[in-house]
Amino acid sequence: MKKILIILLFFLVVLGFLVFVGGNNLNKINSSEVQEIEITNPRSNFTITNQKDIQNLLKVLQKTELNRKYFHSHPDGFAFMIEIRLVSGETTHISIRSDSATIDRNFYKSPASLCDEVDSYFESIKNKYPVNSF
User: Fold this and answer.
1) Burial state string for 99-134 with b = 16 or more CB within 10 A and e = fewer than 16
2) d(Cα 85, Cα 43) in Å, to the nearest integer?
3) What's domain 24-128's superfamily in CATH?
4) How much is the pLDDT for 15?
5) What proportions of the chain, in percent to the nearest 5, are helix, strand and coil?
6) Distance CA 131, CA 3 (A)
7) What is the value of pTM for the model shown?
8) Which one, 30, 100, 123, 125, has the greatest CB density within 10 A?
9) Tell me, what's the pLDDT at 84?
10) pLDDT at 75
11) Dihedral angle over CA of 71, 34, 58, 134, nearest 10
12) How far is CA 17 from CA 22, 31, 68, in A?
């Protein structure tokens, strides 16, 4: 009986760890489900509507490994804010800083390369879309 209780407790601890430390939920988003992506940085703001551009931005976001953090330890601010609007009406909000990312109020530690890659992609497509007014 004691062994069963220990095994059950171990299983629950492992399950809890997987739930709280699991990867980012961006891997669940398929580009065909995305209606548009609004991307903002301190210099500009525009909405991506072309499916190829949406697919390329999602590839940049999905290939990065994010590690879950349990509290927000930085002052407010962002390098990029991204709002992914799905055809179903759901929205995912992402805030990217140089060393962290927030996805729908969940905090993640990210490599600095994520911010650099998003910035590079942002610069490569910003002239294709009209700037949104604030």
Assistant:
1) ebbbbeeebbebeeebbebbeebbeebbeebeeeee
2) 22
3) Uncharacterised protein PF16224, DUF4883 (3.30.1490.410)
4) 57
5) 40, 30, 30
6) 63
7) 0.72
8) 100
9) 93
10) 56
11) -70
12) 8, 29, 11
Tokens of 24: 């980012």
**Cβ atoms of residues 26 and 58 within 8 Å:** yes
Q: How far apart are CA 26 and CA 63, in angstroms?
A: 10
Structure tokens at 58: 């999602």
- Read off the tokens for 73: 């330890």
pLDDT digits (tens, 9 = 90+) for 50-108: 999 999 999 888 887 777 776 666 555 568 899 999 999 999 998 888 778 888 888 88
112-123, pLDDT tens digit by residue? 788 888 888 888
| Cα→Cα distances 24→90, 92, 110, Å | 17, 12, 11
